Amino acid sequence: NMSGSRYRSRAPRAGKSHEKEYVGFASLPNQLHRKSVKKGFDFTLMVAGESGLGKSTLVNSLFLTDLHKDRKLLNAEERISQTVEITKHTVDIEEKGVKLKLTIVDTPGFGDAVNNTECWRPVTDYINQQFEQYFRDESGLNRKNIQDNRVHCCLYFIPPFGHGLRPVDIEFMKILMDKVNVVPLIAKADCLTPGEIRKFKERLREEIDKCGIKIYQFPDCDSDEDEEFKQQDRELKESTPFAVIGSNTVVEARGQRVRGRLYPWGIVEVENPAHCDFVKLRTMLIRTHMHDLKDITNDCHYENYRAQCIQTMASKMSSDNRVESPIPILPLSTPDVETEKLIKKKDEELKRMQQMLQKMQQQMHEQDL
Amino acid sequence: MVAPTVGPVYGEKPSSVVDFSYVGIDAILEQMRRKAMKQGFELNIMVVGQSGLGKSTLMNTLFKSKVSRKYVQATAQEKIPKTIEIKSISHDIEEKGVRMKLTVIDTPGFGDQINNENCWQPIMRFINDQYEAYLQEEININRKKRIPDSRVHCCIYFIPPTGHCLRPLDVEFMRRLSKVVNIVPVIAKADTLTLEERDFFKQKIREDLRANGIDVYPQKEFDEDQEDRMINEKIREMIPFAVVGSDQEYQVNGRRLLGRKTKWGTIEVENIAHCEFAYLRDLLIRTHMQNIKDITSTIHYEMYRVRRLNENNTGAVHTNGLSDHSAHEM
């Protein structure tokens, strides 16, 4: 009795430019726009690399923030016993009405110890935790205000002093390439001449390829993009890995005030593309590829995590009834009695937790009033 | 170290003053827009009402092309089906570079039988089936990059221009369906009502809706902020829109306009002095289209999902406070 027949056909084009034929749904992107401006965006950037490679300075230069103003730098003794930590700083930036909640995740202590075996573990643990939290939120009952704290991009700082990738670099990038978008950078590039930078970049690109390291790839341009965009895109791709310099100080060069570093032999201008790739990095990270970084995180890295997680849980549950299930599972086929009982128990637990949470939220709300 | 020189800076204005304060995060809007344009949009509209109320014509008028099933399917003659059928037609349309896959879901047979009891059931089932399909995709282990969205974003309900008040069938249908989908009621074939009759009818309809607790789009409880509320209040004072549809053009005052020609004059469809088609079009397409889709996905679909997650495990208890007649009627 109920026939859901579907037909597809090409209707005559409703889109000639004169007013007569104008339907009006061309305004859809603007409607979408309006909603996003109201909501705001969030972005989580991780920086990894040894101490002293200019990570904090670079982040401050990129986002014009002053995140580590009162930081106390550890001395050598204190550093001996230091383990790799994960620190988070969140800052709200607003520009031309667009709000961005930026989270910078730092990894102090990474690669600094004498024995750096598995120094990447706190980093991968952190990334997985964010995935897990998102997975719970997404599978839960109240999905209204899910926060996306997943790491969207990891800037990995390679020291400019060596001859290419070191074992710790290779290991770190190989382990992280399946969990996050890895963007390797040549740090403190002002200690290399242009020729040296060129050679170093070639070397790095070869080694990255040879070791099978999958770093973040810029998506290809559409064929219908304008020539200026395509040119910019080509240059971006040919300059990787970016050689960067950061600075928070303003110096006077050629009669102008610029962000830079003052040396006896000259002034390095951070935003001068002839001096370093800072502008390219900023363009890529913020102005052209921020959305793509988030998409790849969501569509690839997160989906991989989720698929693995579900499969692990499913196999564990069928073999061991005492395993904790963190999310409410929707039984797709008719489950056996044991599984059903477990699901029912977990569901009741979840409901109790949610009721408690609601009560707490209400109390907080009442306190605020 | 090379002597510092000024180089061209790509993608930025060539300026002699370095801009210290501009990071460039507003560029993410442009990135989003590019992606949305590439992907295109989807819109699923359902039309419900008795035969002969001009549903197909109205759809064609709205989208200025032949999108209804009548023009796609070759039917020998228009017969009233014995039971309600659900028929979907999809079209790819494009305007100024924006591509949209429009699906019009028709429900021939609704309200046409002698006994129309429970005629909303197949429609309700269809809507819930779309939610179910989406849910199944969402909980899959290997999910598609973009889950195809077949959920009904908007249901246009055609009220016959009796001029009196809502009929029991209208109330029954809207009462149940407004809980699962966005309902936009319209007064069909409004060229049979004078302006006074129209205003009276609208008022009665609004009273009837209020009296029966029926929340049509734009629902008051989903207004997000003051700005929304102001805009939506104005709309709520005007609904249901009294519409006239036409896909025929006539010459009026030297211009070619869509209309209906009678001996006593020509009704211009897009003239707001004649009927409210333009308001409906603006609401559905030019201003609130994205909002309609958002309410469907963040509210109606989420309610369905919560119900589903609960009902398998705990039987008849529904924690979302909704009365469950819609679930149990199936």
TrEMBL record, chain A:
<keyword id="KW-0342">GTP-binding</keyword>
<feature type="domain" description="Septin-type G">
    <location>
        <begin position="39"/>
        <end position="312"/>
    </location>
</feature>
<dbReference type="GO" id="GO:0005525">
    <property type="term" value="F:GTP binding"/>
</dbReference>
<dbReference type="GO" id="GO:0005737">
    <property type="term" value="C:cytoplasm"/>
</dbReference>
<dbReference type="GO" id="GO:0051301">
    <property type="term" value="P:cell division"/>
</dbReference>
<keyword id="KW-0132">Cell division</keyword>
<dbReference type="InterPro" id="IPR030379">
    <property type="entry name" value="G_SEPTIN_dom"/>
</dbReference>
<keyword id="KW-0547">Nucleotide-binding</keyword>
<keyword id="KW-0963">Cytoplasm</keyword>
<dbReference type="InterPro" id="IPR016491">
    <property type="entry name" value="Septin"/>
</dbReference>
<protein>
    <recommendedName>
        <fullName>Septin</fullName>
    </recommendedName>
</protein>
<dbReference type="InterPro" id="IPR027417">
    <property type="entry name" value="P-loop_NTPase"/>
</dbReference>
<dbReference type="Pfam" id="PF00735">
    <property type="entry name" value="Septin"/>
</dbReference>
<keyword id="KW-0131">Cell cycle</keyword>
<comment type="similarity">
    <text>Belongs to the TRAFAC class TrmE-Era-EngA-EngB-Septin-like GTPase superfamily. Septin GTPase family.</text>
</comment>
<feature type="site" description="Important for dimerization">
    <location>
        <position position="161"/>
    </location>
</feature>
UniProtKB/TrEMBL annotation, chain B:
<comment type="similarity">
    <text>Belongs to the TRAFAC class TrmE-Era-EngA-EngB-Septin-like GTPase superfamily. Septin GTPase family.</text>
</comment>
<dbReference type="InterPro" id="IPR027417">
    <property type="entry name" value="P-loop_NTPase"/>
</dbReference>
<dbReference type="InterPro" id="IPR030379">
    <property type="entry name" value="G_SEPTIN_dom"/>
</dbReference>
<dbReference type="GO" id="GO:0051301">
    <property type="term" value="P:cell division"/>
</dbReference>
<feature type="domain" description="Septin-type G">
    <location>
        <begin position="39"/>
        <end position="311"/>
    </location>
</feature>
<keyword id="KW-0132">Cell division</keyword>
<keyword id="KW-0547">Nucleotide-binding</keyword>
<keyword id="KW-0963">Cytoplasm</keyword>
<protein>
    <recommendedName>
        <fullName>Septin-type G domain-containing protein</fullName>
    </recommendedName>
</protein>
<keyword id="KW-0131">Cell cycle</keyword>
<dbReference type="GO" id="GO:0005525">
    <property type="term" value="F:GTP binding"/>
</dbReference>
<keyword id="KW-0342">GTP-binding</keyword>
<keyword id="KW-0206">Cytoskeleton</keyword>
<dbReference type="InterPro" id="IPR016491">
    <property type="entry name" value="Septin"/>
</dbReference>
<dbReference type="Pfam" id="PF00735">
    <property type="entry name" value="Septin"/>
</dbReference>
<dbReference type="GO" id="GO:0005856">
    <property type="term" value="C:cytoskeleton"/>
</dbReference>
